Amino acid sequence: MAPPGARGSRIATWYSLARPVLFALDPETAHKAALRLAGFAAGLAPEPPPCPVRAMGIDFPNPVGLAAGFDKDAQNVDGLAALGFGFLELGGVTPRSQPGNPRPRLFRIPEAQAIINRYGLNSVGVDAFVENLSKRKSKIVIGVNIGKNKDTPNEDAAQDYETCLEKLYAHVDYVTLNISSPNTAGLRDLQGFEALSNLIRKVKAKKQQLRDKHGRNVALALKIAPDLDKAAIRDIAEAAKREKIDGIVATNTTITRKGITGYPHAEEQGGLSGAPLEELSTDVVGTLCRELKGEIPVIGVGGIMRGADAAEKMAAGASLVQIYSGLIYRGPGLIHECVSACLARSGTASTASR
After folding, report:
1. Sheet of strand 271-274, all strands in order from the earlier edge strand to the far edge
2. What residues are labeled active site?
3. CB atoms closer than 10 angstroms to residue 20
4. Residues 125-135: tens digit of each pLDDT
5. How far is it, in rounded angstroms, from Cα 79 to Cα 18?
6. How many CB atoms lie within 10 A of CB 329?
């Protein structure tokens, strides 16, 4: 086996050749092609150093995961797992299949290392998703992002989340309640204190039934928006603590356009991810962690384009991190870079605490 340095150089060279070809394609077509290439890239990527983390009652081999939205339908779990991630968050998935918004709905802004998407929670539906997931051979930690169908009113949203949870329960390690996609009308209203408390309470009651039935625990997390003021973040933290949620993913994409003004596609509707989101997301992570006071672990996601960005999320209080847009712009070598940066940061923090 080639040493990590040689493998790191090999994957960087491979992606420098593959990226222009992928970027010449329509973004959604390129994304599907990249999913199919994951298994091949895994043979070139260096194996990240061990950096074990325990969070949400789960043991992770390293703290760097794949963010939801990259493999929406659980179609290439084994290929992605082989890249060196510590965990994968798949989906989002809805109870019934739905097409999402019409194409084009995915836009690159290379000048800012950014992406706008307005997929609209396109999903094969939870039954087809579970069928795909059941074919995996990898033992990697699996989370699944779950949402409500577009035509389900908010007052009935808990039933959709419960349906997904029930069908996924035997196949996953955690589920994330998506209450923050900007591409489903009214979804972010579920982030309010009372609405969120009621939702968590109902889904947790269902989880208790399933835990008794299956004899195993599946952690329950929720994913929040970056476009929240401090009072709203405080309300979410209080609801999460009161209802004893297992984790919070911070954050989803943003509806702001800071950092991309004047670039092609900057005015497209949808959620913005990538480098322009990094500072905003990290600020939310820091505020949230201060409010939670260590009672609930946070998964930091948003704008991680280099190892230092991952370490910054950890320094802000995150227990785990996730990448998506950085993987598109930087390639699979970013995984090893982020794990190494998190490992170095944890070592520095341990030394400083002694």
Report:
1. 106-109, 114-117, 271-274
2. 181
3. 8
4. 999 999 999 99
5. 17
6. 18
Cα–Cα distance measured from residue 222 to residue 77, given in angstroms and rounded to the nearest whole number: 22
350/179: higher pLDDT: 179
353 — phi, psi (to 5°)? -80, -15
Work out the pLDDT band at 348, boundaries 50, 70, 90. Answer: low
Write down the CATH superfamily of domain 49-349.
Answer: Aldolase class I (3.20.20.70)
**Within 13 Å of residue 182, how many CA atoms lie on the same side as its CB?**
19
The residue ranges of every structural domain in the chain are 49-349
Non-local CB neighbours of 16 within 8 Å, separated by 6+ positions: 331
Start-to-end Cα distance in the chain: 37
Alpha helices in the chain (DSSP H): 4-23, 27-42, 77-81, 126-133, 157-168, 193-214, 230-243, 278-292, 307-315, 325-330, 333-353
Cα–Cα distance for residue pair 306/130, rounded to 1 Å? 33
Q: Which helix (H) or strand (E) holds 55?
A: strand 53-55
- Which residues, at least 6 apart from 247, have a Cβ–Cβ distance to it below 8 Å? 55, 56, 174, 176, 219, 220, 221, 222, 296, 297, 298, 299
Which residue shows structure tokens 């599946």? 218
**Other C-beta atoms within 10 Å of 181: how many?**
25
Backbone phi, psi, residue 272, to 5°: -95, 130
b/e map 45-71, b = 16+ CB within 10 Å: bbebeebebebbebebbbbbbbbbbbb
pLDDT single digits (tens) 159-173: 999 999 999 999 999
